[in-house]
Every structure is written in C-alpha cells, then in structure tokens.
Amino acid sequence: MKSMLRSWTAAGALAVSTAALSATPSSANYALPSSTINSGVGDMASANYKASSSLGDPFFAAPLGSANYKINPGFWGAVIGPLPLCLLDIDGDGNADALTDGLMLIRAMFGLTGTAVTNNATAPTAPRQTWAEIQPYIHFAALDLDGSGTTDALTDGLMLIRAMFGLIGTSVTINAVTPGVPRADWTAIRGYLNTSCGANYAP
C-alpha cells in the first residue's frame, strides 16, 4: 500500500511539474512556449525592429540599434563560483596586463565597442580575441572602484590602469577620486581590487 501511495505521489508530482512547464505565457501580441527556454529561437522582427535573441542565449548577441535605441539582446554573462565578478584578465590569458586587459577596459569605459576596444590590445595567445568574446567579461558596475555608483573612465578607469601599471598609494588616486565617495584612498581602493577583482596589489 505504501509503495502504491509513493507511486501515485510521484506520478502526481510529475503531472503537476509537466503541466507547469508546458504552460505558455501569451497575449494578443506575444507567445512564449516553454520549449523555447534555453534552446533559442529565430529572429524576431517587425517594420520597426529586429531582435536576434531568446531566453536561451548564454550571452548577449551583437548589439542592435538605431538613431533612437540600442539593445544588447540575451543575457549578460555572470561568473559563478570562486572567480570574482570584477574581472581584470578579460582576454583570459591568465595575466591581468595593463597594456592588454587594462587598455581594453579603459577603452570600453570611454564608450568604445568592437575593434575600437580590441585592436592591438589582446595578448597573442589569449583565448578571447574578439569583442564578442571579450564583452561578456566586462562588468562595468563591478569596476566602480571608488564606490560612487558610477563607473567613470576618468576616475575608476584612471585608477585601474595606474594600479595595473604597478603604481601604488597616492600615485594611483591623485586627481582621480571624486570627493565624498565611499572609497577615497589607496587603502580602500586596493582592498576592493584585491577582494572583489582577484588582484594582489601591494599596500
């Protein structure tokens, strides 16, 4: 009897689970079949837009835009596990280098994209060479070194590139810290870089 009850319970749970998964959110304007989740779909378009995207995208696709909008479709890549969300080695060669990773990061902070970021800035043996490969590893919010709430090339970017070149102390922070920010000196900036970005900068 107990065995039969367990079987019925398992069957009931499976039926509920299957019903939940097969539900299709929809309206007069859209439908999202559960079968498309994590599997990708074709291009979506109308006379006014085109989006190559789905909930199945592991990372966002190439940016889409016009004079009035810009879309980075798909999901932003996230780092799960022991690696920090704030990545400095964005080309993945195992070395956070000022002339490769640092240069690309500060270019991206200035709003550049594509080859304007990667040109002559990736290590020859790095596994990530193109903008499409590099972009998912740039997390602007995590590069807000001074904690101001905004990632700025002339403050956060400047301090980051200085630190990556081996500078320390006020040589990193001079004329690069906005008054009143939570992290306003090298001790605080260094602590953030070492604990959140996987760096190992000296005091």
List the topology elements:
Elements: H1 2-22, E1 44-45, E2 50-51, E3 64-65, E4 70-71, H2 98-109, H3 115-118, H4 131-134, H5 153-164, H6 170-173, H7 186-196
Antiparallel strand pairs: 1-2, 3-4
Helix pairs in contact: 2-5
Brief sketch in words of this structure:
With 203 residues, the protein is mostly helical. The protein contains 7 helices and 4 strands; from the N terminus they run H-E-E-E-E-H-H-H-H-H-H. Residues 1-22, 34-40, 56-61 and 75-84 have low confidence and may be disordered.
Number of helices: 7
Question: What is the string of helix and strand elements?
Answer: HEEEEHHHHHH
Structural class comes to mainly alpha
> Residue ranges: pLDDT <50 for 5 or more in a row?
1-22, 34-40, 56-61, 75-84
The largest β sheet comes out as: 2 strands, antiparallel
CA distance, first residue to last residue: 69 Å
Work out the number of β strands. 4
Protein described:
The chain is mainly alpha-helical and 203 residues long. It folds into three domains: 1-36; 39-75, no CATH class; 98-196, no CATH class. Helices cover 33% and strands 4% of the residues. It is built from seven helices and four strands; from the N terminus they run αββββαααααα. The strands form two sheets. It has a two-stranded antiparallel ribbon. It has a two-stranded antiparallel ribbon with strand order 3-4. A hairpin with a 4-residue loop joins strand 3 (64-65) and strand 4 (70-71). The chain is globular.
Key traits:
203 residues, mainly alpha, 3 domains, two-stranded antiparallel ribbon, 7 helices, globular, disordered N terminus
